[in-house]
User: Which sequence fits this backbone?
């Protein structure tokens, strides 16, 4: 009997609490929202984190639509300094989700000018300018003709520039901080990486990759306090990646499954979509397979391989098995099929590699 009474009292108390929560749900929701805003605006992504290098995926996808992969975008940090390699659709939103935010970005490095690698460049520029009261334009490094790309974005956003200065005032959005500042870089034709940036202990090297007919197209090496990350951009299998990645901690390599893309091609034929079928057939020639990326990583002596620019989309995790193929038997290190929010931390003065998921 006592147990029954106790249970009855517990049920009554639970009911009262539930009723109270229901009655005050709006007040509770607003309090949670306020607390969340305080946390978001004061959060320090580097708090309690050792000095070092990191690479995170703010976009692991491709031009093919995917509900959980933004366009190509990699965020690199060196110490407390933040950089971005390529800025695909959705990448700027994910940059904030990872915890860095556009206002912290000090420079962008473009691998090439395919639309899926640059289509959120304007959003990044504008958010950096507005949220940090930037006094100088956002530097953009890339192959020759990066000037044309930045000029186009600057022109497209010129009216918006005027609106925002008129609305918020020059102290909030300094006129001199608007826009993109091009820094064309020449990579050596022999595939050897060439340094194009150096500051605060970080060195960035550009090297040529094979994405023909897109030429030139670059990959980048980020070196900081004994740690190295190599990011390929889009490329077919090529010896220049192997050369740049010799002994690197992490190789972020694009990957396309020819087997699965061939299935897309055949489906397009059956559907009478000859133009789409031709595109599926063509893209196989200027991308590397997961197995080829693994071979490159093995020959280069890389410690970890992260696959990005995933083609085709993988709506179910079980599809990662046929996507990877036998890449994991070809490379002795760890192979990660990259997802948005994945980040690799490389503490300085250490050989430790920590893979984390930001959401």
Assistant:
């Amino acid at each position: 009997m006592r147990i029954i009474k106790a249970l009855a009292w517990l049920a009554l108390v639970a009911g009262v609490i539930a009723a109270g929560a229901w009655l005050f749900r709006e007040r509770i929701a607003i309090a949670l929202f306020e607390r969340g805003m305080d946390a978001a605006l004061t959060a320090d992504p580097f708090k309690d984190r050792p000095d070092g290098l990191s690479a995170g995926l703010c976009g692991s996808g491709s031009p093919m639509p995917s509900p959980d992969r933004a366009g190509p975008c990699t965020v690199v940090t060196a110490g407390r300094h933040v950089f971005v390699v390529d800025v695909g659709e959705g990448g700027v939103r994910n940059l904030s989700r990872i915890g860095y935010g556009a206002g912290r970005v000090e420079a962008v490095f473009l691998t090439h000018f395919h639309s899926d690698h640059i289509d959120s460049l304007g959003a990044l520029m504008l958010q950096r300018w507005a949220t940090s009261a930037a006094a100088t334009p956002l530097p953009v490094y890339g192959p020759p003709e990066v000037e044309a790309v930045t000029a186009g974005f600057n022109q497209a956003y010129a009216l918006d520039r005027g609106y925002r200065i008129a609305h918020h005032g020059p102290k909030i959005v300094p006129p001199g901080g608007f826009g993109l500042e091009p820094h064309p870089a020449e990579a050596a034709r022999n595939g050897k990486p060439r340094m194009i940036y150096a500051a605060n202990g970080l060195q960035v090297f550009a090297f040529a990759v094979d994405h023909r007919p897109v030429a030139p197209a670059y990959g980048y090496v980020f070196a900081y306090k004994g740690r190295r990350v190599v990011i390929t951009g889009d490329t077919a299998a090529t010896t220049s990646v192997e050369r740049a990645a010799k002994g690197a901690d992490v190789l972020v390599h694009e990957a396309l499954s020819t087997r699965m893309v061939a299935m897309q091609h055949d489906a397009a034929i059956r559907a009478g979509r000859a133009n789409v079928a031709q595109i599926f057939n063509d893209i196989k020639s200027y991308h590397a397979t997961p197995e080829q990326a693994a071979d490159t990583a093995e020959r280069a002596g890389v410690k970890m391989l992260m696959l990005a620019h995933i083609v085709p989309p993988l709506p179910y995790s079980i599809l990662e098995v046929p996507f990877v193929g036998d890449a994991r038997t070809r490379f002795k290190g760890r192979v990660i099929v990259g997802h948005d929010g994945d980040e690799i931390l490389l503490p300085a003065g250490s050989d430790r590699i920590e893979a984390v998921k930001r959401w």
The chain has a mean pLDDT of 94. The two ends are 48 Å apart (CA to CA).
